[in-house]
Amino acid sequence: MTDVDHSNPSGRLEAAFRHIADTRMAGMALVNPALAVEAVGFRQLGQVWVGVLITPWSMSLICLPATDAEWEALPSGTKREVEFPSGTYEFLTAHEAVLGPYLTSSLFSPMFDFADMDQARAVAVAVLAEVFAPQAADIPATPAPSLSTKLERSASRRGFLGALLGQGSPS
């Protein structure tokens, strides 16, 4: 097993993905030049560090080991489920030489719907708030919205982003 630093991974993650931005992603058409690499809201949940990674080409929910868990045995691209307070989410395993193994769940890609880092950061913070919110079964009962209210809500990522940014659902 590799020697892994189990402290908050934000700085290491940002450094690794800045290098990727400057090398592998340089000049790629899917890069939004208004955005930069930033790790948002990383916190420990059991044996993993969880947060959102913003890059000029994607936004992903990321899990990195907080202990000496045997993650190296997982080949890249393997599906894994991770339990959060709000429910279970599917991730793919990935590996970067300077980080070691990690789990990633894509939120947005490409990133052209984001005008600047403030918008991207606000969405990342909102995503983390939802991921760490308790499941509906853990929340005291409240009246359910009517069927017409449910149908009016957009379930798309674009609709979610528009609602967070106060732009309503795009047509």
Structure classification: alpha+beta
| Overall pLDDT confidence | 84
Q: The CATH topology of the largest domain is what?
A: Yope Regulator, Chain: A
CATH architecture of the largest domain: 2-Layer Sandwich
Shape: globular
> What's the count of strands?
6
Supply the CATH class of the largest domain. Answer: Alpha Beta
- Element-by-element helix/strand order: HEEEEEEHHH
**Hey, roughly how much beta strand do the residues contain?**
25-35%
The domain count comes to 2
What is the subunit organization of this protein?
A: single chain
Q: Which strands sit side by side, in order, in the main sheet? A: 1-2-3-6-5-4
**Rg estimate, integer Å:** 17 Å
Q: Are there runs of 5+ residues with pLDDT below 50, and where?
A: 146-155
Give the structure's gist in a few sentences:
By secondary structure, the protein is of the alpha+beta class. It has 4 helices and 6 strands; from the N terminus they run H-E-E-E-E-E-E-H-H-H. This is Hydrogenase-2 operon protein HybE.
Features:
Hydrogenase-2 operon protein HybE; Yope Regulator, Chain: A; NiFe-hyd_HybE; 2 domains; 4 helices; six-stranded antiparallel β-sheet; 171 residues; alpha+beta; NiFe-hyd_HybE_sf
Overview of this protein structure:
By secondary structure, the protein is of the alpha+beta class. The chain has 2 domains: 10-139, Yope Regulator, Chain: A; 144-171, no CATH class. It is 25% helix and 27% strand. The protein has helices spanning 10-22, 117-131, 147-152, 157-164, and strands at 38-45, 48-54, 59-65, 79-84, 87-96, 100-108. It has a 6-stranded antiparallel beta sheet, sandwiched between helices. Strand 5 and strand 6 (100-108) form a beta hairpin. The longest helix is centred in the C-terminal third of the chain and has 15 residues, at 117-131. It is globular and about 35 Å long. Mean pLDDT is 84; it is low at 146-155.
